[in-house]
Design a protein that fits this description.
The chain contains two helices and six strands. By secondary structure, the chain is of the alpha+beta class.
Length: 117
């Protein structure tokens, strides 16, 4: 396979930095491992951000999400890690990341991180 998971988030110049507009990116196939049991946890990642000077490149975001597949993380931890990395890479005007985890033991978990510049 020529593509491997990566923690590198690539960016490109915002083509319209003079305007506020939302970029919404949904990833319904995020997965990581439960740090207690080692079993897989599945989630939909819903990213909504208003770019300033930079936008995230989609393939790099996909490979970035993929890099968590074999790592154990609590839902709260992994959602905040991803938001922190995106904020660091993009310096967006605003960002909202919603992680909607699938049911486990009869409980659904949704973690929402919000950032305003």
């Amino acid at each position: 396979m020529s593509t491997q998971p990566s923690r590198e988030l690539e960016t490109f110049a915002n083509p319209n930095p003079e305007r506020d507009y939302h970029i919404q990116i949904n990833c319904p196939e995020f997965s990581c491992l439960c740090p207690k049991t080692g079993q897989p946890d599945f989630a939909e990642m819903r990213l909504d951000y208003v770019p300033d000077q930079l936008c995230v490149e989609l393939k790099s975001l996909k490979l970035y999400y993929w890099s968590f597949r074999d790592e154990g993380h609590f839902h709260e931890q992994v959602t905040n890690m991803i938001a922190d990395d995106l904020i660091r890479a993009l310096s967006p005007r605003s960002l909202r990341l919603e992680a909607i985890f699938n049911v486990r033991g009869g409980i659904y978990t949704t973690v929402v991180v919000e950032h305003q510049a």
